[in-house]
Amino acid sequence: MSRGNRKSVIFEDDADCRRFVALLGEMVGRYRLLCHSYCLMGNHYHAVVEVSDSNLSEAMHWLNGAFAQYSNRRHHRTGHVLQGRFKSLLIGDDFYLRAANTYVVLNPVKAGLVADPSEWRWSSFRATAGMDSLPNWLDVNWLRWVFGGRTLQDAQLHFRAFVSAPRDEHSPKDTLVFGNQILREQARNVIGATLHQSRLSREYRALARPTLDELFPRLLPKVERNTRILRAHVVHGYRLAEIADCLLVHPNTVGRIVQTLRNLERDQDLKA
Fold first, then answer.
1. Higher pLDDT, 26 or 174
2. pLDDT for the residue numbered 174
């Protein structure tokens, strides 16, 4: 999901929407993604995409940048069109994928803009449900293994019925991993094992992290304590002040420890 800068409108008319959808389709082909659903709202958009090459950030940077350039040229403006980094979350198994795709296409209904998702032109609902022609870049194979049925048309009917059914307000909008605890732990393990040197949002580093009390039991040797300070900050996303409060020391002390160990790691990498 990406939102307009200062929550301002980013799609001012149908021409803006058509251009963005065209760019979305181009992004899918350019970066070898699968797009399962999308929805354009006035000041933000949603899309559910499947990534195989760990290139989501690169793809989104291209999409948002290309649309911002188009928008500024067309409307004779300069500056940011979209606000900061896009927000992303991991989606789990069939149940969660079904719920996420439904949440996306129901956005205009929940916003009170239309009574039924089929009335909203700028989402994937009509094409996914078999009501409009299917763009060659929109993937609907997920319907068969999520909803079942002997044919795609059967699955599309099940999808339409599911979207129309009453439901609770549970949605993926306020979480980073839309799945069960096992998926959360798997994501946490991947981040801790392979991505600790990457530039990740603090939200992702905080995913399923241990508490500070668990990281810092009493009577830790100094070397082990300092190592855990670095891991708490770099891998788990704890702020220096939070670590300092737990250890009853000044944040500057924690900052010096982190910087010293980082410099040591850098020197070792250079020697290697």
1. 26
2. 47
pLDDT of 71-125, one tens digit each?
888 888 877 888 777 887 777 666 778 888 998 999 999 999 999 999 999 999 9
Residue ending a domain, choose from 158, 174, 190: 174
Angle formed by the axes of helices 56-75 and 14-30, to 10°?
Answer: 150
Return the CATH number at 149: 3.30.70.1290
Q: Strand pairing partners for 46?
A: 39
Regarding whether 159 and 59 lie in a shared domain, the answer is yes
Report long-range pairs for 187-191 (Cβ below 8 Å, ≥24 apart): 187/90, 191/235
How many domains is the chain partitioned into structurally? 2
Distances (CA, A) of 146 to 20, 21, 93, 166, 179: 28, 25, 9, 19, 15
Instruction: Give the domain extent around 88.
Output: 2-174
